[in-house]
Amino acid sequence: MSGTKHMEKNWSYNMLHPWLRTGLLTSHGSKWRSRRKLLTTAFHFDILKDFLPVFNEQSQILAERLKKETNKDFTNIIKPVTLCTLDIICETTFGVKIGAQENNDSQYLKSVT
Questions:
Q1: pTM (2 decimals)?
Q2: Could you give the CA distance from residue 22 to residue 18 in angstroms, rounded to a whole number?
Q3: To which H or E segment does residue 56 belong?
Q4: Contact assessment for residue 39 and residue 48, using Cβ atoms and an 8 Å cutoff
Q5: Which of the chain's ends, N or C, has fewer CB atoms near its CB within 10 Å?
Q6: Is-contact 47 41, C-beta < 8 A?
Q7: InterPro entries under this entry (predicted)?
Q8: 99, 84 in Cβ contact below 8 A?
């Protein structure tokens, strides 16, 4: 059984169901295959190449923020990485720069985090 026909997700994915419902990340079997087919073209390498400037810009902002934390013994990277991810998703998906990494107090950011 090396194919995806009988693929089951790890039990920990069940915790995501209340938030994400049964989407590509949490579904399995035929439901997963049909949703995966729909998204495959969106993540083709040629399409992703167009987003490299956004990935680079937002990653640079993240790197600069993390560089300021290097003198500490421990840094929780969850929030900075989440903000970077949000910036990348909003700009590549919607074409909107929200500046989540640089403006932690924005109303939009407060609404989604």
A1: 0.64
A2: 9
A3: helix 52-67
A4: no
A5: N
A6: yes
A7: Cyt_P450, Cyt_P450_E_grp-II, Cyt_P450_sf, Cytochrome_P450_Monoox
A8: no
Look up tokens 């109303």; give the residue. 107
CA distance 84 to 55: 9
Residue recorded with tokens 């407060």: 110
Percentage of the chain lying above the pLDDT 90 cut: 42
From the list 91, 72, 82, 47, the residue with the least C-alpha distance to 39 is 47
CA proximity to 31, closest of 40, 23, 39, 21: 23
| pLDDT tens digit sequence for 11-70 | 666 766 676 667 666 777 787 788 778 777 767 778 888 899 999 999 999 999 999 999
Average of per-residue pLDDT values in the chain: 82
Question: Which residues have a Cβ under 8 Å from the Cβ of 82 and sit 6 or more positions away?
Answer: 113
| Burial of 55: CB neighbours in 10 Å, binned 0-12, 13-18, 19+ | middle
Closest CA to 26 of 37, 40, 12: 12
Give phi and psi for 6, each to the nearest 5: -110, 25
